[in-house]
Amino acid sequence: MTIVCGYTDRPESQAALRWGVREAQLRGLPLHVRRTFPEQPTDSPGQVRDWQARVEQARADGEHILQQLCDAGVEGSYDLIVSPADSTATELLATARELGAELLVIGLRRRSPVGKLVLGSVSQSVLLGADCPVLTVKADD
Predict the structure, then answer these.
(1) What are the boundaries of each domain within the chain?
(2) For 2-137, which CATH superfamily applies?
(3) The whole model's pTM is what?
C-alpha cells in the first residue's frame, strides 16, 4: 500500500504535498508523488526551449521533494511523466491503481461553476474515477 499525490507547480499541489506527507507519517506508508507534464509544444523554437527548461526544473523539483520526504521520515518516490494535457486525470488514476494506493491526494483550485463547466476539471475526473479515497486540498490563503 502507498499514498499517491498528484503534483504540479501550483500552490494547490504544494498544499496537497504537505497533506500527503502528513498522511504518510500518520499511516506509516510510503508517498509516491506523480508529476504530469504537458507535451512539448511544436510552435516555435523559443517555446520548445522554454518547455525544456520547465521540464528540467520539474526534475529538479523532484529531487527537492524527495529530500523533503526524507527529512520528514517518509519513504517516497517521485516520477515525472510527459503526456497530453487532457490525460492528467487518467495518468493519476492509473498510477493509483498500479501502486494499490490507499489514498490519493490532489490539489483543488477555486473555480466558479461556469469555469468548471467550460474548462472541465481534472479534480472532478479523479474524484469520480478513483478506486480509493481521495483527499482534496485547497491552497493556503
Answers:
(1) 2-137
(2) HUPs (3.40.50.620)
(3) 0.88
